[in-house]
Amino acid sequence: MSSRTAARRRPVTRRRARRRKPGARKRAALRRQRRLVARRVLIGSAAVAAVAALAVLLPMTAQAPVCAAEPASFPVAGIEGWQGEQLENAATIVLTARERGFDRAGQVIGVMAAMGESSLRVIDYGDWETAGVTNPDGSRTSSIGLFQQQDWWGSAEQRMDPASSAGLFFDRLGRLTGWQELEPSIAIHRVQINSDPQHYARFHADAEAVVDALSGACEVDG
Questions:
Q1: Could you read off the pLDDT of 147-160 as tens digits, one per residue?
Q2: I need a labelling partner for 174 at 20 to 30 A (CA). Which of 21, 103, 114, 134 fits?
């Protein structure tokens, strides 16, 4: 083998290019960039945590109590969907109950009853006009007002007046022995003598929210 051939077959050793280390200025810039990224990640995580905490707390925020005797203090947005005239009628029911010595449980029952009967509105028609409902003896029902009370409850004027009709309701509830031990819807059923004993149960939570919201202290003049 000639020396020329051996030289051709001899493996050639390549030198690896040395990686240059970044200068001090560049290293400082990289460190600043890393700190900036870390800071942004930390701020983003804190913002996400804050939003999550707010989402948990908002549903737990209760309506601030207002004075039942001062309609101007009622929240414009309403309480659980009940607003304006409805809240004013609920307040009348609550105040009437208080005058007759009924505590929160009785007040809730009164508001529940009116929610279930008229959606807290004073209406001059009843089940006969809307659904052709008759009494057991076949006569037309004559229910009107907040509590949809028939002729034997009182005069049309009494039944169409929120305070008077509420008074008629609480007079009968007070004569119902052991009403405090009954389920609220059952107690109302015993007073109203409606066809479905559980009809009012769906309004229990709303009635509690409304009554509690109307439990604020009222300013005393003078």
A1: 999 999 999 999 99
A2: 134
